[in-house]
Structures are given as C-alpha cells and as structure tokens.
Automatic annotation (TrEMBL):
Keyword entries, A-Z: DNA-binding, Transcription, Transcription regulation
Protein name per UniProt: GntR family transcriptional regulator
Keyword DNA damage set for record: no
Species annotation: Bosea vaviloviae
PANTHER family reported in the protein's UniProt record: GNTR FAMILY REGULATORY PROTEIN, TRANSCRIPTIONAL REGULATOR, GNTR FAMILY
C-alpha cells in the first residue's frame, strides 16, 4: 500500500544532487563563485541554498569533473582559469569534435543543416546591422547549439556528458579571457559557416578540417588574452 509513496522519496536525493550541481555551475558562471577561490561545504550551502547532504554528495562529482580540488590543510579550491586549463580544454574539444563533425557531415539531415545555416546567417545580419542588446547572448546560444548538435548526433551519452563539462570550462575561459564580443562575433560565426558549408557538401574530411581550424582560432584567442 505504501509503494506509490516510496518512489518520490527515492527520487528526491537525486533531484537535490542535480539542483546542487546546477546551482553551483550557475553561480560559477555568474562569478559569485570565482576560479581559484577556496570554499567550504558550509559556504556552498549558503550560496546554493541547498542542504549539507546534497553538497556532500555534489563534491565528488565536482572533483571528478575537475571543477574543484581538495588542497591539503586548506580545503576545497575552485579550478583556476589558466594556460593549463585552456590547453587541456581545447585539446579535448579537438579530439571529440573532429570525429563528431565528420560523422555529422555524413549523417545529419538536410533540415538540421539548413537550420544551422539560418541561425548563423541571422546572427551575422543582426551584427552587420549594428547589433542589439540581446545579440551577444543569442550568438553564444547559436555557437553552443551548433557544437551540441554535432556532439549529440553521435547518440553517445558518455561523450555528450564529457563535452558539456568541457563546454562549461570553455565558458569560464570566455568569461575571464575571450567571451564572444562584437569584434570577434562575426569572425566566429563565419568560422561556423565554413564548417556548415563543408557539411552541406557532405565532405567529412573538409568539415573536420574546418572544425579543427575553428577550435584552433578559439584557442589562440584564449591564450593571447
């Protein structure tokens, strides 16, 4: 008779863990938690508004993803944004996205590809018209959605999850180094259009090469700031 009530109780710890992770990452990207900062479990409770148990269960995930590390006798430290993080994050992206782009070029539907082109051309048109208050945010969404579409097309949960952790680190790097701004917005979108053109031609080798160039350009910008 009590079985219907047991499922919500079992699901609640998982929901709290996911809420704790989402809250931590939101505050990290909002700079309420800063790279290199030392934090305690109690401080994370105060920042996230979630119970200590959820924070304790969150910490191993953050450590496994490289978002925090335990420093002996000092406590937990949020990951630094430094040259090592930049090199590692972009190298990992290159390994994942070259192969994913080649497969996407071979297998994506015409409608999917057309949607990607339309999004990018709309962003470029807005930028060339002088821009507007939501242009940067919309450009960043367009950027993310293209890369996620290419990765998720693999239909591999392990790869998709690993990519999203790396993308979070890329967003941190952009915040503190090279966030998409007006002067690089159009070049980034045009990089994407070169990839899309190769995908439209169903040319996996050229699509992978264009993705490699794009990631290399992003890495160079990040390391030069």
């Amino acid at each position: 008779m009590n079985q219907p009530d047991s499922e919500p109780r079992e699901a609640e710890p998982l929901k709290l863990r996911e809420r704790a992770y989402a809250s931590f990452t939101e505050r990290l990207l909002a700079r309420e938690i800063k790279p290199g900062q030392f934090v305690t479990q109690r401080e994370l409770v105060a920042l996230t508004g979630l119970p200590l148990g959820a924070i304790r269960e969150l910490i191993p995930r953050l450590e496994a993803e490289g978002l925090i590390k335990t420093v002996p006798q000092r406590g937990m430290q949020v990951a630094h944004v430094d040259l090592n993080l930049i090199r590692n994050a972009f190298q990992f992206r290159l390994f994942l996205e070259k192969e994913a782009t080649a497969l996407y070029a071979a297998n994506a539907t015409d409608d999917e590809i057309a949607e990607q082109r339309a999004r990018h051309e709309a962003i470029i048109a807005r930028a060339e018209a002088g821009g507007d208050e939501t242009l940067i945010e919309d450009a960043e969404d367009t950027d993310r959605l293209m890369h996620e579409a290419i990765i998720d097309h693999l239909d591999n949960d392990i790869v998709s999850k690993a990519f999203r952790v790396t993308w979070l680190k890329i967003r941190l790097i952009r915040q503190y180094e090279t966030r998409i701004q007006n002067h690089i917005l159009v070049p980034v979108m045009r990089d994407h259009l070169k990839i899309i053109t190769a995908i439209e031609a169903r040319d996996p080798i050229r699509a992978a090469e264009e993705m490699s160039i794009h990631i290399g350009n992003a890495r160079t910008r990040a390391m030069s700031y």
